[in-house]
Amino acid sequence: MLYYLFEWLDKYDFPGAGVFAYTSFRALMAIILALLISTIFGARFIKLLKSKQITEIQRDAKIDPFGVNKVGVPSMGGIIIIVSILLPCLLLGKLHNVYMWLMLVTTVWLGALGFADDYIKIFKKDKEGLHGKFKIIGQVGLGLIVGLTLYLSPSVVMCENIETRHAENDEIIVTHKKNTIKSTQTTIPFFKNNNLDYADFVSFMGEYAQTAGWILFVLVTILVVTAVSNGANLNDGMDGMAAGNSAIIGATLGILAYVSSHVEFASYLNIMYIPGSEELVIFICAFIGAMIGFLWYNAYPAQVFMGDTGSLTIGGIIAVFAIAIHKELLIPILCGIFFVESVSVILQRVYYKIGKRKGVKQRVFKRAPIHDHFRTSMSQIEPGCKVIITKPTTLFHESKITTRFWIVTIILAAITIITLKVR
């Protein structure tokens, strides 16, 4: 809204009004505003949660060998994150931009889904929360909306990057086609000709290949949104873990969005140019500010938990953002921590169920998701249970595990950006 106000004032030569035309200025303002909202509003909201005794109904304190008592810590702090994202975007963003609207809808949609889960856990005293099938339906529904919007909206276009090699000096020049097109292409890491077209997988369909490619793209969108949202949800198990990792991932996505929206940088990195995606930079900066502000209260020892209201939302935001800038195939690298957390849970459950059928107690890890493995001793495992991976035998403090996971995410973020240039 402020963007449109200052755009109008700039017509009358109002001093300083022109700065709102710059993406960099609005992006920095979004970080600052989100940070202020999350810290100031966060403090008051935490007091409200405490006064209403809105806390998780049970915390498994046995897994913490250092005796940290987290009973009574307020939950549903994800509301702080959501408010801190929405307000700066509404004030500073171009609200006619389709990418901005997609991200706002994603935030509200998954925020509502996570809120429903937390509400059932806290107010209905049901530890299971929202039934898993309803979560999946909500995530699949969002993926369908995002995929179809990107398919049907005339504003969602790209300029394909073209590589030209000069025979005289063997110099490679990267340019972009002048005409914008709707395309099912996406960036693939490590390969020199780095645009992968989903339509190529269904080329056997002839004249219908492009339409079938969009159908495949929508299915991939649904898969990515569901997987990353659940991965972030599983990662939210230690103080500051999900917030810190998400802030790092958000910063990386912000860089990718910025270079994708700038034709010269896109040429340098030999990636597609996406007109209009600069508004995604505003959104992700608000996201980063909200994460850092929330971390002020969520860092060890946590004063508030984000709950599913926050974890489902941030995972969905990361997924939809990556899809919007055609970088969804970089997700396994960038969100490697989320991926490993999800795989550890799947392995644990499958192996446990196989043993259960045989009447044997068995596990792959001492505990899953994987971050809990590092703070669980064998004495905490039920008697007679066989564990495949018992190392390390040394137990680590929660804050050390969290910090090391942050470091791994930073490394993965660096690798993600490097894959665009090292091909």
Describe the structure.
The protein has 423 residues and is mainly alpha-helical. It folds into 2 domains: 2-159 and 196-333 and 400-418, no CATH class; 345-392, no CATH class. It is 58% helix and 5% strand. The strands form 3 sheets. The chain has a two-stranded antiparallel ribbon. A two-stranded antiparallel sheet has the order 3-4. The mean pLDDT is 89.
Topology:
Layout: H1 2-11, H2 23-51, H3 78-92, H4 98-122, H5 132-152, E1 161-165, E2 172-176, E3 185-187, E4 195-197, H6 209-235, H7 241-260, H8 263-269, H9 278-298, H10 307-324, H11 331-334, H12 336-358, E5 362-363, H13 370-373, E6 386-387, H14 398-418
Parallel strand pairs: 5-6
Antiparallel strand pairs: 1-2, 3-4
Helix pairs in contact: 2-3, 2-9, 3-4, 3-9, 3-10, 4-5, 4-10, 5-6, 6-10, 6-12, 7-9, 7-10, 7-14
The low-confidence parts are none
| Widest beta sheet: strand line-up | 1-2
User: What global shape is seen?
Assistant: globular
Mean pLDDT: 89
Task: Describe the main β-sheet briefly.
Answer: 2 strands, antiparallel
Tally of separate helices: 14
Helix content: 55-70%
Oligomer description: single chain
- Cα end-to-end separation: 42 Å
Beta-strand content bin: under 5%
Compute the gyration radius: what is it?
A: 23 Å
* Count of beta strands: 6
The count of domains is 2
* Structural class label: mainly alpha
SSE string: HHHHHEEEEHHHHHHHEHEH
